[in-house]
Structure formats: C-alpha cells, structure tokens
Amino acid sequence: MPLSAKQFHKPKSPSGFPSGEFIPRFTPSQGALICGGCVVIDPTLRKVALIHDPSTGINQLPKGRKNIGEDVHAAALRETREETGLHVIPLPLKGLTRATPTAQMLGEPVNDEAFAADSAGEGEDDHDVWEDVDEEGTSTERASGLTGWAHHCEPIGITTYRCEMTLAFKVIFWYAAQADSLQDPRQDAKEPWEQQYELKWVSAQEAPTHMTFEADGQAIEKALADMRRSGYQI
C-alpha cells in the first residue's frame, strides 16, 4: 500500500525538532570510511561476478576505499577491476533515484529549489509521495522527486555499518557494471592483499543466495530489478 506524505514524515518532538533517526548527526572525516563497489553482471549469459576468499570462505561483492580526490564511481570501478581482474564498464540503468535530473533529461531548465523542497518533504502534506510511480515503478510524473525514466549511472543503493577494524562509520556506494564472463581475468591487476581472492561467476537468479552478507545479496537483487525496469530479460 502506498505511503502518504503524512505517514512518511515522522512527527516532531515537543521541542519542535525531528525525533530519533531524523536528527542530523555529524561524523568527522577520520570517523568516516567512504567506499565504492560494483554489482558486475554479464547481461548476455545472465551471470553475476562475486569474490571468493578461500581463507575465510566468504563470498562478497568487489568493493574498496576511495583514494583522495577520486570520484566514488571511479573508485568503485577501479576496486572492481583490481579485485576481479575483469575489464568492467558502467551499466546505465533506469533505476529510481532521487538525484536531480539534468536539464537535458527533462528537456527544460531544472528547478533545483522545487526538487530540493520535494525531496526534503516540504511540499503539500496530502501529496502521496508514491502516487507518481506505477506498479512497475516507472515514473509517470517527473515532479515527484524520483527519476526513473532515463538511463543513468547513479548508485543503485548504499550499505552502511561500523567498520570492526577502524570503528569508522563505513558507507559503501554500489553501482551496476557489466563485463564478459568469458574473458580471462588479469592476475596482475590485484593488490598484494587481494591475491587470494578468486573470481566466480554464478547465475543471476542464484547470486543473492551465494553471498555471505545479506546486504550484498540485496544489492544484487536491486541491480537485477533495475535491469528488468530497463528492458533486460534477466
């Protein structure tokens, strides 16, 4: 059942400030770990790439920290190439995103203030924030703050947790990428600590169940859903 704006926006505390999870919290740079990773898919053979660590038995998606001055998407692709040895390229999809569409995508100038207000929930209270999305998730009204009618390379989602080694707040931005599962991976692309990693290709439908971490499986499911939205038979 669609959520209305009144259901979606939590009530404020008596002090007038948002309560609980809606209160902004600051994390200093040394306490934040920004990473990028990819869900690598072979659209032709309908397979997903995963990294297997034989020393621990862990199956996971390729990912890693961004370098200083590096774009997060570029970091995701670089780390994926290093850990898998594959030649991977971005996979543009029509996934729903709250990133502001460009004027070229809209065919008209973008009203940044209107989109910012809508995303922040400052529009009319009786507006259903999901009423502009049909059963398949296709955007039918572009003023909803959701973009899903055009191909783009925005993140398909994020994973957040506390890093055990550094205790930093870790944020992983996931992107969709594509590669040929029949190619021979480069062994010289790996960093020394990545040498034990083994590349495995599994069927797209079974891939989520192969992952050690549930969040990785959810990232795969989201990438596959976005592919189906984009017309792929997978």
Describe this structure in words.
- By secondary structure, this protein is α+β, with helices and mostly antiparallel strands.
- Helix content is 21%, strand content 21%.
- It has a domain of 149 residues: Nucleoside Triphosphate Pyrophosphohydrolase.
- The chain has six helices and eight strands; from the N terminus they run αββββαβααβββαα.
- The protein is globular, with a radius of gyration of 20 Å.
- The two termini are 27 Å apart.
- The N terminus is likely disordered.
Features:
6 helices; Nucleoside Triphosphate Pyrophosphohydrolase; alpha+beta; NUDIX_hydrolase_CS; single chain; 234 residues; 21% strand; NUDIX_hydrolase_dom; 21% helix; disordered N terminus; 8 strands; eight-stranded mixed sheet
Summarize the model shown:
The chain is built from six helices and eight strands, in the order αββββαβααβββαα.
Set down the secondary structure blueprint.
Blueprint: H1 5-8, E1 32-42, E2 47-53, E3 58-60, E4 63-65, H2 72-84, E5 89-90, H3 103-106, H4 112-119, E6 157-162, E7 169-178, E8 198-203, H5 207-210, H6 214-229
Parallel strand pairs: 1-7
Antiparallel strand pairs: 1-2, 1-4, 2-3, 2-8, 5-7, 6-7
**What is the radius of gyration?**
20 Å
How many DSSP-defined strands?
A: 8
CATH class assignment of the domain at 29-94 and 148-230: Alpha Beta
Helix content: 10-25%
What is the CATH homologous superfamily assignment of the domain at 29-94 and 148-230? Nucleoside Triphosphate Pyrophosphohydrolase
For the residues shown, what is the average pLDDT? 83
Ranges where pLDDT stays below 50 over 5 or more residues in a row are 1-8, 121-139
What class do helices, strands and sheet pairing give? Answer: alpha+beta
SSE series:
HEEEEHEHHEEEHH
What is the end-to-end distance?
Answer: 27 Å
Q: What percent strand?
A: 15-25%
- Overall 3D form: globular
CATH architecture of the domain at 29-94 and 148-230: Alpha-Beta Complex
Largest sheet: 8 strands, mixed
Put simply, the count of helices is 6
CATH topology of the domain at 29-94 and 148-230: Nucleoside Triphosphate Pyrophosphohydrolase
